[in-house]
Design brief:
Layout lengths: L2 H28 L5 H6 L5 H11 L5 H13 L13 H36 L4 H14 L3 H15 L13 H32 L1 H8 L4 H39 L4 H11 L2 H29 L4
Helix pairs in contact: 1-12, 5-6, 5-8, 5-10, 5-11, 5-12, 6-8, 7-8, 7-10, 8-10, 9-10, 10-11, 10-12, 11-12
Amino acid sequence: MTLTRYTVRRLPLALAQVAAVAVLIFLLVEALPGDAAVVIAGDSPDPARVAQIRARLGLDRPLHERLAEWAAGLAHLDLGSSIVSGRRVSEIVLGALAPTALLAGLTLALLVPLAVVAGVSAAVREGGLMDRALTSTGVALYSVPEFALAMVLIAVFSAYLGWLPATAIDGLGAAVLVLPLLVLLARPLSSTGRLVRAGMIDALRSGYTRHAVRLGFSTRRARYAHALPNALAPAAQQLARTVDWLLGGVIVVEAVFVIPGLGTVLMDAVADRDLPVIQGLAMLFAATTVLVNLAADLVAFRLVPRA
């Protein structure tokens, strides 16, 4: 099967996943406790005023009508308007997207080469000092929650040594990004590096790699031209799961380091029970997850050897 045919087969499934997730997001957000009309009405809301606000916002309409209207808007890439501020959800998302995209993009840009170098270095020295050191360090880092690691790094590098700023209150400069990137890299670098190591060891022991050496290829060429591409196939799948994790990890990191990104917008929307903003952000995260997993499947399909 060619890559084009495989892509055509996978696209309908991806679209169906996005549609199913959209319905699920709407229902789950509607099930959240609290009432946006009460939040808007103030600390001592009058029941009549709350009823007027609910009618003005359309919150008193039947659930299926609001779901149909929201789905119709999604079909035209319209995420609706914020209940609290009245701004378009798309404007709110785009306004907060840059810091989140910067953190996630830099994390992925650093993760791929670092994981490949660490995994290959450990695999070609299987059982050696470097292999044991990288594996032990990876397991240790993977076991530490992001919030706890962030607190430790802030205590050491900001409070004690004074080398790096602890928050982005004074602006999102290069120095501010160092600690958040270390937190975001720790766990995915450990898991992806271990997968590259395991895949590389299997590939080096495989028949096609040994056959390449018998044909006269150098060990270096057999290692990197034949073994490495096959070792990267499972890592591509892990990279997609890493993007899923980043969507949640960035929210935690933004909260700890006071970075004004999508995570901050989501927490504010949940506090205000701003349903359209919550739904819009959840839909953005879900669609990103589906698209990234689709891309990972295509990469893995391209890398895995077939007869």
